[in-house]
Design goal:
Distance between the termini: 18 Å
Order of helices and strands: EEEEEEEEEHHEHHEHHHHHHH
Radius of gyration: 20 Å
Structural class: alpha+beta
């Protein structure tokens, strides 16, 4: 079975990325990514595939997937029959073990981080007896942002290391070597180009030419590797930059923000801004001026 090299899309630099899926069914491709992953199943059931190991999954299950470990939460067939109905719900937490955790491991107070890395590289399931406390902490992480999210995440890692015993291994003991693929390099080029040219008119033809494929092939490629359209991702990048301008006071009016971040009209900018952040630009500006220090709403990624 082909393993897709997956790129977790983020519109801003973050140490801990959260994706909350409320969908008809889970991402259907066997895939892997450089980030380690914690997944809490809130609703849904099916078969978990991790490398060459399989087992059923159900609501309430909590899993730790290692970095670059091929995996897939395959929903039962019944979940694909009514595709317009949200029948699965999960919270996924992504973090780069080589950056976020290894950096923390250099601090003497964080000796438990190294233990966590050693114990979870092959994938584990958290026993039910410890799930209730872990679930509370995961929900808190998903509802916070910035420094609060990072600190809550560190508390979760400490709990999983010091209090949880007898994890269930998600491996048969066989080695799962990495498979080289050009897909990761392509995604990096797409992301870099988008970050550098988001304020310009990036057509499908233009972005597809960056990785030397046709627009039709590009749409399929990007959707498979991110579970979102390129237009959605581009808008998320633009809105994130708009929020930075608001927080830095780098604007004259809402229209100036719109045009500076690549939107062709203030009306379209207002519509996309509210869809992405849950607030209109004027509401966002008002709350920030009154001391609101939150960041933009977390954008959703696949797991």
């Amino acid at each position: 079975m082909k393993v897709i090299q997956f790129k977790v899309p983020v519109a801003q630099a973050e140490s801990v990325i959260v994706n909350e899926d409320v969908l008809p069914f889970f991402y259907e491709h066997l895939h892997r990514h450089k980030e380690m992953q914690l997944t809490l199943i809130l609703k849904g059931e099916g078969t978990l595939i991790v490398g060459n190991y399989t087992q059923p999954f159900k609501s309430g299950d909590l899993y730790i997937i290692g970095a670059n470990q091929p995996h897939n939460f395959k929903s039962d067939q019944s979940y694909s029959e009514d595709q317009g109905i949200a029948t699965v719900h999960a919270i996924h937490i992504f973090f780069e073990h080589e950056n976020t955790l290894q950096s923390l491991n250099n601090l003497p107070e964080m000796e438990f981080v190294n233990k966590f890395l050693k114990n979870t590289c092959q994938g584990l399931q958290v026993p039910e007896v410890y799930a209730q406390e872990a679930v509370r902490m995961i929900v808190k992480i998903s509802r916070s942002s910035g420094l609060k999210r990072l600190l809550s995440f560190i508390r979760l890692i400490k709990y999983l290391t010091k209090h949880v015993k007898e994890y269930k291994s998600l491996t048969t003991g066989f080695s799962n070597g990495l498979v080289s693929t050009p897909d990761g390099s392509r995604m990096d080029k797409i992301y870099q180009y988008t970050q550098e040219h988001y304020a310009e008119n990036i057509t499908l033809e233009r972005i597809a030419s960056v990785v030397h494929i046709t627009p039709q092939a590009f749409c399929k490629f990007f959707k498979t590797h991110t579970r979102k359209t390129y237009k959605t991702f581009l808008n998320e990048v633009r809105i994130n930059e708009a929020c930075k301008k608001i927080m830095n006071g780098d604007f004259e009016c809402i229209s100036s923000i719109a045009y500076a971040t690549g939107f062709n009209s203030a009306i379209n900018f207002n519509k996309v801004f509210k869809k992405t952040t849950g607030k209109s630009p004027s509401e966002y500006i008002k709350e920030y001026k009154h001391g609101w220090k939150g960041t933009t709403k977390m954008l959703r990624q696949p797991a």
